[in-house]
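Please predict the structure of the following assembly.
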Amino acid sequence: MVKVDNLVKNYGDFHLEVSLEIPDGTVTGIVGKNGAGKSTTIKSILGLISPDQGSITINGKEASQLTGTDKASIGVALSDSGFSQYLRVEDVTCILKKLYPTFDETFFRDNCKAQGLPFNKKISEFSTGMKAKLRVLVAMSHRASLLIMDEPTAGLDVEARNDILDLLRGYLLEDEKRSILITSHISSDLEGICDDIYLIHNGKVILHEETDAVLSNYALLKMDEQAYSRLDKSYILKEKKDSFGYSCFTNEKQFYAENYPDIVIENGNIDDLILMMTGGN
Amino acid sequence: MRGLIEKDIRLTLIRKQTIVVFIAMALFMGVSMNGSFVVAYLTMLAMMIAIGTLSYDELDNGYAFLMTLPIDKKTYVKEKYLFTLGVSVIAWCIGAVLFCIVRVVQGNGGTAFAELPELMAIIPAMYMSGCILIPLQLKYGAEKSRIALFIIFGLIAVIIFGSTTLLSSMNIPVEGISASLDSISTAVVIPVLCALCIAAAFVSYLISTKIMNKKEF
């Protein structure tokens, strides 16, 4: 279990202040616009940056005090960092074998082959998708109980994204106690894999909700000005005026479906969540 | 630690063509220059290559990922010092073998073996410059550390020149001091150099650890 308690980090004008929890056996997603604080949160959890205040514990131990053995139970894939691109997958295999006592060479080699990653080619010669797949496979290769993935699908085409998500799903199926913390800009990726979602905006968690609840209870209501004026706004989280009238975001879809049959109700998704909750009025 | 050493060996072997060229050049120098320069030359190059692995680690924001591996910052720093020492010793051995082969071929085998203990002073002497380079590279990165190194060596040159001039102006015979230093036996010089090297490495390691602990990725 990962617990982030009142984490504070300041970078000039940017102020991050978040609290979150990742229970064992769950997949938690962090969403938000660029610069919202997603990567800073991930880096703080990994001890790559020191928080100004607050505490981060992983399985009850302070993140800054994690030993090599503790870190061996965490698999990490960062969006902008990995093994030197001058190395080959063959080199990476030998390095991982010496770094992790639990390194599963057969799993790693089989999956690299299945994903079409050549063993004797420099990583620098890989496509963006191949590099991303390698980063994810490296993170999964030592049977970690916690995977931390920062934008693992960024910049990839649909097929490569699905391959990575399938790898993660397969990984979760092998052991129900495994947890994943994942950030992504692509909401459909998170909708398909996450149990719960944290929405970060301007360094603050502005919403924490189960993914199923987002998909079943949240909705985007669209109406003209007349319908808007008679709308009960008790369950409206955010509203936005556009050229067609009003768009309102609610977490009580059923209430509006039953009481306002004449307005357009679109099922909510994480994209709407980000757009409405971090923009609008 | 074993994983980091494996990584650095593999990063070093990326430059195997360069290493082969260096050894060929060393062999050529060994034959043509008829001296022990080849040993110092190879040791210095090997040390530079070993410290060069820091540049590979730094490239493309590599430190961030490396620090998520099952190692801590202290282990990372320790490995760099050990790897640099190991590579320097291996290069010294290769240089010494080349030196001896050249001398034996030239019919002076006996003198080569007699010179070897003296040549051992190269390792601590070279490693001490490595002890300056490692923290510089950790602090300033590959590019800026070169400028910092030039400044440091410039300062050392100024200090040596200044103190020589000062001693001469005070009518203290600098040549005499130099001659008496030269006359100190190898049996004394090497342990003193080793002791200085260990002290320098320890201080350098503490500085490097402090630099790494302050770093954010």
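Chain A is about 35% helix and 30% strand. The mean pLDDT of chain A is 89.
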